[in-house]
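User: Please predict the structure of the protein below. I'd like the answer in structure-token form so I can feed it into my own downstream comparison script.

Assistant: Understood. Taking the following sequence of 64 residues as input:
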Amino acid sequence: MVPSMWHQFLKHPDFSKTDLSTVLDAHSGAAHLPKEISSEVLNNMPNNNYFGEGYGMSETVCHH
């Protein structure tokens, strides 16, 4: 998700009632995600130990 979606997800009134125990990893892209948000995501997903972030890669080209 993009950073603004992560923020909305964490601030949703039902967030604390949501079972996130089956989430194994999380990712964000399109812009920098503040450390406070990624830390809060990881703290609320007990089986998740990875938060991937990818942005600023529009100039990258993959070639085989």
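That's the full token string. The CA atoms of residues 7 and 13 lie 12 Å apart.
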